[in-house]
């Protein structure tokens, strides 16, 4: 077995419920958008988190609202909401969804900015990508607004925390 195949096999076995059939690939191996037309409309919810690490002094400036580029937290919050609404424009195979709710909550703690996002809809497919896109763009906005203070800022994590609605609910283990 090649190194790539062995790595793929290990990765695949680490997941609890990978499908036997890849739904985003057609018979010729081309990427395609999944047809969700036969799926039931259900209430969908997803929560994601991003963590931006920086020096405590930089984080304190963010918390005080006196960073040179202005209100980092307010700008990141709006950027995250806008990003969630534009997810289908950014991620090629995502379905455009009528979002019923998007929230971006941000806390500054010590040497980090923790961003938690939530997206909701009633639809035939989930909102995980919208929550993840909101968290990612909010984190990138924080980075952009503090890079003049500190070059060593790091987007340390972007993860899905939970999803509900559809066939399977899921929650990240702590």
Topology:
Elements: H1 3-14, E1 42-53, H2 56-64, H3 72-85, H4 87-90, E2 101-109, E3 112-123, H5 128-146, E4 154-164, E5 170-171
Antiparallel strand pairs: 1-3, 1-4, 2-3, 4-5
Helix pairs in contact: 3-5
Q: Can you describe what's shown?
A:
The chain is α+β, with helices and mostly antiparallel strands. Helices cover about 35% and strands about 25% of the residues. The chain has helices at about 5-15, 55-65, 70-85, 85-90, 130-145, and strands at about 40-55, 100-110, 110-125, 155-165, 170. A 5-stranded antiparallel β-sheet has the order 2-3-1-4-5. It is elongated. The protein starts with a helix and ends with a strand. Residues about 1-15 have low confidence and may be disordered.
The percent of residues in helical segments reads 25-40%
Which percent band covers the strand fraction?
25-35%
Largest sheet: 5 strands, antiparallel
Mean pLDDT: 88
Q: What is the 3D form? A: elongated
Lateral arrangement of strands in the main beta sheet: 2-3-1-4-5
Separation, N- and C-terminal Cα atoms: 34 Å
- Tally of individual helices: 5
Summarize the structure.
By secondary structure, the protein is α+β, with helices and mostly antiparallel strands.
